[in-house]
Amino acid sequence: MTDIREIFTDEVVTRAIVHDVELPYGAGTMALVTLDNGFDHTKPSTFGPAGLTSLNEALDAIAGRTDLAAVGVVGKPFIFAVGADLKGAALISERDQALRIGRLGHDVFRRLGELDVPSFAFVNGAAMGGGLEVALHCTYRTISSGVPAVALPECFLGLVPGWGGTQLLPRLIGPAAAIKLIVENPLAQNRTIKGRDAYALGIADAMFEPADFLEESLRWAARVLRGEVTVSRADHTGDDWSKAVADARFLVDMKLHGASPAPYRALDLIELARTASRDEGFAAEDEALADLLMGDELRAGLYSFDLVQRRAKKPAGAPDAALARKVTKVGVVGAGLMASQMALLFARRLEVPVVLTDLDAARLDKGVGYVHAEVDKLLGRGRISADQANRLKALVTGSLTKDAFADADFVIEAVFEDMKVKKKVFAEVEEVVSAGCVLATNTSSLSVTEMAAGLRHPERVVGFHFFNPVAVMPLLEIVRGVETDNATLATAFAVGRSLKKSSVLVKDAPAFVVNRLLTRFMGEVIGAVDEGTPLEVADHALDGLGLPMTPFALLQLVGPAVALHVAETMHGAFPSRYGVSENLARLVAAGKPGVYAPDFSLDPEAVAFFSGGTSPSTAEEVRLRALRALAEEIRIMLDEGVVSAPQDIDLCMILGAGWPFHLGGVTPYLDRTGIAEPRFLPAGVASVPA
Which residues contact 542 (CB under 8 A, 6 or more apart)? Predict the structure, then answer.
């Protein structure tokens, strides 16, 4: 039988280092266990078999002592622990191996809650996955108000919390709140909560400020041991567990349509926690973890995770960062919704003056007013202080003339998607800005090279394509025109990093990556409807993928007029592959916002625009048609050098189009299903993180 330590190499081992601490107020001696992998906070502590063994050995030594009043667990500075070391997980080849890793974690962690003395988790930094489960096994928990991330992200990767999370958390904070952390947050772009939120939920029993967190936690622990502080917790046995699980299952169905098993297994385990003994619940977690560790979803999730954690941080083809120019002021041409969102983001992240321009005072006032209103919302939610709010409002101003850009280092246009309009804007801006000012365009489909043609300095024009909503969507497509120089490109990437976006370098090609693929994909579905496939059949043909929305729901979000404009642009570039739907054009001419009514039911009047075809397809035929078109277009894009590798297309689709994380990127999915022939990626690339 293979030793699991031979599979999980534990390249960086988290050690459990024990020190005795004399508690204040004469409360006795605490054995304080520090979880530390020997690196700073940029390499968080994780648990593989060697790390679990180190903690187990520390607990062996502690368990034999009779002089202790308590045991404490704390992490290295800024990090408590962030879960299992998953590098070896994709190498597991036998279910028994997967079962043993689950049991090992349970066997070690549960000891913290079964000692002869109380145990205290002092959550001083990020606590995620198995790290949070360590804390849950302890008798008591304190947390720092400065903790940036608390989460159980396993469902995001195609797993479940397998070391106690699904059993302990619902009993501690109730099923509904536990479901939010275990299922809903991971499926919402792997959302995390902060230390204050965790305390408010009841995950921690006390909260202290970061500066003296450990000292105050030890004082609090001493008072608990002396009986001066009593910890009371809510009784959740009366909660309606079945309703909470049923409601969550409905939401998961709406989002995934059964495409990923992990959230469903997690909900089963949470429901089991209401009545199961600790042994029964932990055994069920072991079985679920073993099943999921053997599934494709984990390997796919690890591939996606590797893309967003590594490749996104070192963009392929980006020039030397030392070439980047300093940006001390930003100009935004246009004051519409997208432009206003950008202005707020630039002000918040770069903390430099941002000036908007537009054609008249009414539009300008509306744009600046939007920014100020959003700042007030941030203040009202406690996201920023009053001083920060005042500073942000002062940074964002408006001007009716482009002379205000004279001292700007970075000017971005967000005007109507028309080449003549954009060329005119850049010509006017070039007349007033310095020779070193970067001119960026937020175009979603037009040629950056053509936009720069005719300027005195075309080398300083770059595509800087945001996705809507600007503050939420993490992707930036940075587009290099034929003349764009390295200094301009380096500045664009530096600004993208400062905005906390993941940037991908893209060749100047029609619609770049995301919009090109989405337009082809949607065009095939709309084409099937034009031919006579019932709209509802075509719209739900790809539900099994677990996409964030159906094609016609996406059409409604984007807006039929915008979708038609992009389709026409792509048809002009590639007429044999991109069609223009006459039915969609009729829908736009009628002023319809889409095919759905406000209550999300189909609007019969809008649907009628797509009737009349005589060659209907089945749902399966529509699915294959759309996926084969994606495979063809990706192959062509790679041949054209639109991006440097298939991984960049995967990254763009995950971050810019919401391609499901559990599918592991569009190219490995097409490989895995046999639709891509030949494969996009070498065998195994999407199975093991690079």
Answer: 525, 550, 551, 622, 623, 626, 627
